[in-house]
Amino acid sequence: MFSKKFSIFIIGLYYIPQLIPSRKVSNTNGHDCVAKDFGQDSTVCVCNASYCDTIPLIEKLNSSMYVKITTNKDGLRFHKEIGIVEVIENKASYSDIVINVNASVEYQAIHGYGGAFTDATGINLASLDGKVAEQIMKSYFGIEGIGFSLCRVPIAATDFSTRPYTYLENEDPELTSFSLQEEDYQYKIPYILQALNLTNNNLKLISSPWIAPLWMKTIASYAGSGTIKEEYHPTATWAKYLLKFLEEYEKQGIDYWGITTGNEPSLALYPDAIQSTPTVAWTSADMQKFIKDHLGPTIENSSYSTINLIALDDQRGYLPDLNEILNDSAVNNYIDGIGIHWYQDWYESANLLDEVHNRYPNKFLLGTEACSGSTVIDLIFNTRVLLGSWQRAEDQAKDIIEDMNHWVTGWISWNMVLNTDGGPSYTSNFVDAHIIANITANEFYKQPAFYTHGHFSKLVPPNSKRIQMILQANNNESDVVSTAFKKPDGGIVITVLNSSDKTLDINIIDEDLRIIETVTPNSLSTILYWKD
Length: 532
Ligand SMILES: *[C@@H]1O[C@H](CO)[C@@H](O)[C@H](O)[C@H]1NC(C)=O
Ligand SMILES: *[C@@H]1O[C@H](CO)[C@@H](O)[C@H](O)[C@H]1NC(C)=O
Ligand SMILES: *[C@@H]1O[C@H](CO)[C@@H](O)[C@H](O)[C@H]1NC(C)=O
Ligand SMILES: *[C@@H]1O[C@H](CO)[C@@H](O)[C@H](O)[C@H]1NC(C)=O
Ligand SMILES: *[C@@H]1O[C@H](CO)[C@@H](O)[C@H](O)[C@H]1NC(C)=O
Ligand SMILES: *[C@@H]1O[C@H](CO)[C@@H](O)[C@H](O)[C@H]1NC(C)=O
Ligand SMILES: *[C@@H]1O[C@H](CO)[C@@H](O)[C@H](O)[C@H]1NC(C)=O
Ligand SMILES: *[C@@H]1O[C@H](CO)[C@@H](O)[C@H](O)[C@H]1NC(C)=O
Ligand SMILES: *[C@@H]1O[C@H](CO)[C@@H](O)[C@H](O)[C@H]1NC(C)=O
What we know:
This protein has twelve helices and 23 strands. The chain is α/β, with parallel strands linked by helices and about 525 residues long. The protein has two domains: about 60-110 and about 465-530, Sandwich (Immunoglobulin-like); about 110-455, Glycosidases (TIM Barrel), CATH 3.20.20.80.
């Protein structure tokens, strides 16, 4: 069982021999996953009012130890093992994969990872017993949860609401009758406040608009190609409406770290007849004007002038258009970051991220939305929710790693909690989520993707920096991708995704430290060590 690794380990022996057999001792500390197989390629963890698995405590170790966390197709969930670091002289590589780490080369700082407080999320939480809902909140935000730190909040309705609504249904250009709705009071505010409490206020929030009042729009439809009427441009009515949202939430004790220019304006490119998701359409030229003449000045001239204004909030493929908008210096001055969605990442190159970063290095990139189960294929085959899908967890982990290696500073998934249909959604746009609530059984299922996202949200806290890592595959192994970070406490974090079905040895070399590990088939492994 130890064979090869054991003997390699002996060569560079630095540690007292008696401890060697404990190299692979499992030490989860946390509550174990109660696994359930729904016939997919992996399993979910079942939680109810009285039981839920927890994330193990990960404490700083001295420089002769490391910890490895594994989540895999085989059923391990945040499985914790402690290992012993070898100190080497000879850096010759002999394993399948060699990862050379140079922590003195730093790249982008991490803003955080999280999900979205949609109406659907709150409705599902409110439909479960209080105790069960609390287990979900703790799973995301509690000390034994996955450490979500950056979440998104829709401004009024999205397709994951039970009705389309805005804060100002009747024509009122002065915005005097602006009022938050029942959904805010019942399904968003209480859970956001609970999350702030659970995280000791270490939770950043960004807001995004989907839907505009019909009287402000050029067509009488929430979805489709309609935009804000010309007559409301001089008064910056739409920008002031968004500002009102920030004011009303502040009155509820909720402050925003960021606001986006609007969710997926590209939806409006599709024919009105097939559109159901509410949106405000913007061409590049109109968006440029809106930021420069309305949103930018309105926010700058308010008490929210330090909020991060995040452009795009749409698919990666539109980054070249944004490059042009940002070349306008007035727009450039107002914009702090760029939001990207993952839905077209399978065919849009990550080089687009590098291009925008290289041209505008002081604008941060942030993944503002992602979920599985939303493709046309999923619609046709009704595979919106797949309970226990490892493939989906792997797809998401791969995307996070790719984004991180191309300057992205965080990754926010879509609905935090959906029901077993993947809703509710008034447009029947059902999709998958990290947590699926079975309301009748008063229990919920944590998908594999909950844990793989957790490898980042829990193990790579805000203000971590990505560092240099060069992966060398000696055996042609192309199914392994990796990224590395340095945490604020000095810990080095190496995350390795193995999408192949073989077991490989990896050799992590960081100056004169060497870690030899095995990555199991179809796994996400995170290795942490502290050099001082
Ligand atoms: C909750 O889950 C635990 C662990 O699976 C189980 O022992 C217990 O019976 C469940 N409670 C209810 C009310 O289903
Ligand atoms: C590191 O920690 C381990 C476990 O706590 C301990 O046994 C060992 O002596 C420590 N090594 C050093 C060099 O401090
Ligand atoms: C790490 O990077 C720094 C800065 O580029 C360089 O000076 C140093 O030689 C590198 N260390 C190793 C071990 O390659
Ligand atoms: C969280 O709520 C508890 C109980 O109401 C309160 O004592 C505590 O101060 C709150 N913590 C924060 C950070 O708001
Ligand atoms: C800035 O705000 C003040 C007071 O709210 C207002 O009087 C002024 O017109 C605003 N200026 C601009 C450029 O919007
Ligand atoms: C960006 O703007 C500058 C100054 O107006 C202009 O010279 C340059 O051609 C623009 N670059 C692109 C790629 O549009
Ligand atoms: C939800 O729970 C109910 C009641 O226990 C059960 O009949 C149903 O199969 C469950 N649904 C799923 C998707 O597990
Ligand atoms: C590398 O991959 C190619 C193509 O899949 C294969 O023909 C070759 O034998 C592989 N080489 C090794 C060393 O595995
Ligand atoms: C990846 O998984 C495959 C099989 O699942 C395994 O053979 C291979 O060794 C793993 N690679 C790594 C780097 O662990």
